[in-house]
Specification:
This protein is mainly β. It contains 1 helix and 26 strands. β12 and β13 form a beta hairpin.
């Protein structure tokens, strides 16, 4: 009898263990199946072509691809060092800042350029993020703290602001801007210095990135470096629609302190909320950058699931930006990780990493703070780098191949 009880207890224990581990095993099985094949890329070291007029670019903090497969980037001229811009002060033959907005074709030729302060709108102190919508309109955000009227500032306008969080004080860039592709101003949502926080429906607070859902003509704003939310507007009228925080809850601006991977999971987003992109099947993928996580929602703000990536990453965090693969099912998510200097390739259904590429460094295919990511109709990837990275790169899609956990630097293969 005792022996039978022991056998029975053993069987119960085994079954329980199998039950507890089944979800983990299932995830591993799915990841392994997906890991059989994964998208492959090679960097194009000759893209883009050299800029004219001795132009150079600074922190490059946004990239988007339009319906013509033209690549748009935005950078911060004010982030360049004095020795990079001697020509601007007539101190030497080279160089001078390029205009903030640059448009390239697939071959890397510069097609158009514009941007900066003008009549009728408030250009950001520190522009951040660029999106070309399905109608061809160009949207821009900003994360400049600035200085309250009447106060004095010791900070150079346009200097890097990637690491700033909502520590209180003054917030200047509380607006997003809409232009034509030739730089004609169309609309502004929000006013500088007017934000009342994460529950203000009229203003943003240091908005990081924008996404326009062509099915509903709605503007999704990752808001941002000052607020802790996703907010949605009508993309034509600018009318407020809805907003939400982490887990679909009402956002709370209480300072959470520094991220600690050993602490209980944060119930609010940390700053910055760095992306909010909508898939074709109607899910919103939100980059909670410093919390090392991505949260997924329905378009009404209902929470679906979350996943963590390199959870022990401190500092700038591991989830910076996302882009979708160009197959009809958008099977893969490409996630820019500017701290670990790589692009993670995720199975979109499971959020499991099936492969990655890149490494830290200055050579083509390497990264220094890879910040933004976009894909064209052919499946090619374009990335930009902030801080002293100061560039845009093209990674050409080479089809599917054996999935390595780490593909390393995707250098071109010899012909």
């Amino acid at each position: 009898m005792t022996h039978k009880l022991k056998v029975g207890a053993g069987l119960v224990a085994v079954v329980a263990a199998l039950g507890v581990g089944s979800a983990v095993l299932q995830k591993r099985a799915v990841a392994a199946a997906a890991g059989g094949q994964a998208p492959r890329f090679e960097v194009n070291p000759l893209w883009p072509k050299p800029l004219p007029n001795h132009w150079v670019i600074g922190n490059t903090i946004g990239v988007s691809v339009d319906s013509n497969d033209h690549i748009w980037i935005i950078h911060r001229a004010g982030s360049l060092e004095a020795k990079e811009t001697y020509l601007a002060t007539n101190s030497a033959r080279c160089c001078t800042p390029a205009p903030p907005v640059l448009e390239f074709d697939e071959e890397g030729n510069l097609l158009n350029h514009w941007g900066g302060p003008g009549q009728g709108y408030d250009w950001p102190l520190s522009n951040h993020g660029i999106t070309v919508d399905y109608k061809g309109n160009v949207w821009i955000g900003g994360n400049g703290r600035g200085t309250a009227p009447g106060a004095t500032s010791k900070k150079k306008e346009g200097t890097p602001m990637e690491d700033q969080t909502s520590a209180g004080g003054y917030y200047h860039d509380n607006q997003v801007l809409k232009f034509t592709q030739d730089g004609k101003f169309l609309m502004q949502i929000g006013k500088p210095g007017m934000s009342k926080g994460s529950n203000d429906t009229e203003n943003l607070r240091l908005p990081a990135k924008l996404f326009i859902d062509k099915k509903t003509d709605e503007l999704y704003v990752a808001d941002g470096y000052g607020n802790r939310r996703v907010i949605v507007f009508d993309a034509t009228t600018g009318k407020f629609k809805r907003y939400w925080g982490a887990y679909g809850k009402k956002p709370d601006d209480t300072n959470l302190g520094n991220y600690d991977p050993k602490a209980p999971i944060a119930q609010q987003f940390r700053n910055p909320v760095h992306c909010a992109d909508v898939s074709d099947d109607g899910f919103v993928y939100v980059c909670d950058r410093v919390n090392d996580r991505m949260q997924v929602f329905k378009t009404d703000g209902s929470f679906v699931k979350e996943a963590f990536f390199d959870k022990n990453t401190l500092g700038d965090g591991s989830v910076w930006d996302v882009a979708f693969s160009k197959d009809p099912q958008q099977r893969y998510l490409y996630v820019a990780d500017g701290a670990n200097e790589r692009i993670n390739i995720l199975d979109r259904q499971t959020l499991q990493v099936v492969s990655s590429f890149g490494d830290g460094g200055r050579q083509p295919g390497q990264f220094y703070a890879v910040h933004s990511i976009a894909t064209d109709s052919k499946g090619n990837i374009f990335t930009t780098e902030t801080y002293r990275g100061q560039r845009v790169q093209k990674f050409e899609y080479k089809g599917m191949g054996p999935a390595k956990a780490d593909q390393g630097v995707p250098w071109p293969t010899k012909k």
